[in-house]
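Trying the structure run again after the queue cleared.
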Amino acid sequence: MSKEELNFDPDLMQYSGIIGTGGIGSGKFFVINGDQTLGREESRSGHFLNMRDYCKQHIILHYIKVLLGPSFSVIPIGKLGDDDTGQILFNEMARTGFIMKRIEVVKNVSTLFSFCFSYPDGSGGNLTTDNSASAQVDEDFIAEAATDIENLGTRGMIMAAPEVPLKARHKLLELGRRNGLFCSASFTTEEINEAYESGMFASIDLVAINMDEASAISGSSINNKDDLPVVEAAIRKLRMSNEKIIVSVTGGKKGSWCRDSKELSWFPAVKTTAVSTAGAGDAFFAGIICGIALGMSMKDSQQLATLVAGMSVTSPHTIHDGINRHSLFEFLKKSDLDFSETISKILED
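Done. Tokens:
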């Protein structure tokens, strides 16, 4: 058995599997020639970048499966279109080791797709399909996985990510809470207040957000000189809905903050050459879930997440397919950060 295939002893892990939902799809990155804004009826040349883009559920669950190994079951819930993109993604997820029984292929519907465009000066935008298969994930479809959720019980975890409707994610979290699973979620800036008003946070044990989302939920403006007031305001707001919720806030190069029942901890970001930061927040979220599944403290889980996110940005793709326990350990050894002995041991064993 190779180093990459080393498995954790399932009896030593706090959790044995995860059921997640969120977008499953892909995207393309296109650079437009010329900095002037593209006109409504204008045609202009450009070129695609060699970057593979994936959607949130796929990114998060990929790292969880790769790092936690064969004994940790990963069950994604989602829908793909009956197109070439859907088939490619289905095969990739199956090869990673996902249990694919809750993935449905929908006829005559396209797989979720995002077209990211940018100008030479770095500005740009994003066009995403709103009638994709992922948009058809509803509460009834989530409810079909109730038996799987019940079977995992208190040894299971739930992960609810964007790019499927909020109501479907709310249903998954409620089912998880009802059956004693550890429930985690992330949100976009545009939807986080709607999610809060809907009562979703009462069913969440861990929420992973970035500074923009923290600003949105707290109503506080980001001050580039000091992010802590926004972080603390977001935590106060979220804990009004659920006093036991664990809050993770990523601040890019400024590091991350995590608040559990004991304290608020800050940890710096890994200093590395970033090829692309796309998907780094999802990688961080996955790393925290891995730490919790292994029974690590929140501080150690935060450090593991920092390591996963730090290595993820060294790839142009939103899933760094070179990340595994062995490569993370090598990446850690090259870092100048003071990681705990727990992190070194868990990756080296």
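The first strand starts at residue 17 and ends at 21. Worth checking whether this holds up in the mutant runs.
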